[in-house]
Amino acid sequence: MTSAPDRGDRGRFVFDLPDPEAALAIAGEAEVTLHRLEALTGASVVLRGLQLVITGHAAQIERAASVVELVRPIWQDGQAVSSVDLQSALGALNTGRGDDHSAMAEQVLVRSPQGHTLRPRTLRQKSYVDAMERHDLTFALGPAGTGKTFLAAVLAVRMLTERKVERLILTRPAVEAGERLGFLPGDLQQKVDPYLRPLYDALHCLLGPEKTAGLLDKGVIEVAPLAYMRGRTLNNAFVILDEAQNTTPAQMRMVLTRLGEYSRMVVTGDVTQVDLPHNQLSGLEEASDVLDGVAGVAVCRLTSADVVRHPLVQRVVEAYARLDEQREEQGFVRPSSRIVRR
After folding, report:
1. pTM exceeds cut of 0.85
2. 120-131: burial string, b at 16+ Cβ within 10 Å, e else
3. Helix axes 98-105, 58-70, angle to 10 degrees
4. Coil/strand/helix, residue 122
């Protein structure tokens, strides 16, 4: 229940919250979420027991109340509302896509073992999830922190749980970011494990370490470097190729042609973070251009607005994007995501 805003220069609007869990979810720790809502809308937002009181000018109240309403499915479920959720809701309002955002907030993908509800956080993330559900091959390009790999893992685990696929195969190229594999201790598997750690981390979050280990032992989940895919046919599987910006065109062609019956594949990467040798074309860049528009293939492009990590990550991504633009204006070009002088 809500009360209508008063007439006049300043007004007041009240949300009646259903329970203490919802109040804590919308307020955030030390009311940090409320402070962020105030900064975004200009309204004053105060939690009084189970009432969320919004005061300010009419336009400020309307914006703040609309944002709170759009994220209702989150706080009503007792799930913490983050700054990303607020920013996404406000962006949807600004672009006239409030209804789309409401549908997104209600789209629960899966619940983690800890009880957290996992859902798309931005409209482009929702489009990405929808694309993975509808297409056998999906490319996801975007900067760090946009949920490319994690959302793919979420959908993969869900399809495995629903028995729509028999196994998960997660792979990525073992390309050094300024380091050499030969200097790392251990055998080949121990050398490549650090490169596969982000995939393990996603599985642990979704399934828990014990269940993940059990499925790995049974071969239901396979995590392996890209080189292990050559010569195989991947049937009844959900395949995730992560860090695909570090594949060569030949490697990309190889892995795409591994797809077998009743399988689907998601290819993720950030073309601004290529670790291939200088002037080596990224297989991800080539494939996303060549296959865009091909039946059964989706190409999704996420941006800094979809970053769902620490808020600082979004600012870092945007700062480097401005730097790239300045360099291009000054006569630099970026073959294979490298900055060189013309």
Report:
1. no
2. bbbbbbbbbbbb
3. 40
4. coil
